[in-house]
């Protein structure tokens, strides 16, 4: 989650909202104190919005551009279950 000051936010709120639309969570601060947290209205982060607003959890700084760094797995035709493939790969890695 990135942090900006209220002054920075006031200079160009459209740019901040564009970042949020791309999936980034943004904290807005005044004198070093968090006064607002802007979260995407949809997508995987949205389900945590209430918990973040209540201060129960904090989100790691991430954007949808981070999706490119996630591993891709090809599931062969006729594979019994993708989860079994991931668990088998994990066992091979741990061994």
Structure in words:
- The protein has a three-stranded mixed sheet with strand order 1-2-3.
- It has four helices and three strands, in the order βααββαα.
- With 95 residues, it is an alpha+beta fold.
Briefly say what this structure is.
With 95 residues, the chain is α+β, with helices and mostly antiparallel strands. The chain has helices spanning 6-11, 13-21, 49-53, 82-94, and strands at residues 2-5, 26-30, 33-38.
Portion in helices: 25-40%
Q: Biggest sheet, in brief?
A: 3 strands, mixed
What's the end-to-end separation, in Å? 35 Å
The helix tally amounts to 4
Low-confidence stretches: none
User: Based on CA inertia axes, which overall geometry fits?
Assistant: elongated
Rg calc: 19 Å
Q: How many E strands?
A: 3
* Strand arrangement in the largest pleated sheet: 1-2-3
Structural class: alpha+beta
Please, what is the average pLDDT?
80
Strand content: 15-25%
SSE order, one letter for each helix or strand: EHHEEHH
List the keywords.
three-stranded mixed beta sheet; alpha+beta; 4 helices; 35% helix; single chain; 95 residues
What layout of secondary structure does this protein have?
Blueprint: E1 2-5, H1 6-11, H2 13-21, E2 26-30, E3 33-38, H3 49-53, H4 82-94
Parallel strand pairs: 1-2
Antiparallel strand pairs: 2-3
């Amino acid at each position: 989650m990135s942090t900006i000051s209220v002054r920075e936010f006031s200079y160009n709120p459209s740019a901040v909202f564009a970042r949020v639309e791309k999936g980034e969570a943004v904290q807005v601060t005044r004198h070093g104190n968090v006064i607002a947290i802007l979260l995407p209205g949809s997508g995987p982060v949205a389900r945590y919005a209430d918990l973040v607003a209540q201060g129960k959890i904090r989100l790691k700084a991430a954007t949808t551009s981070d999706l490119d760094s996630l591993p891709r797995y090809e599931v062969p035709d006729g594979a019994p279950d993708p989860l079994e493939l991931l668990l088998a790969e994990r066992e091979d890695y741990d061994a």
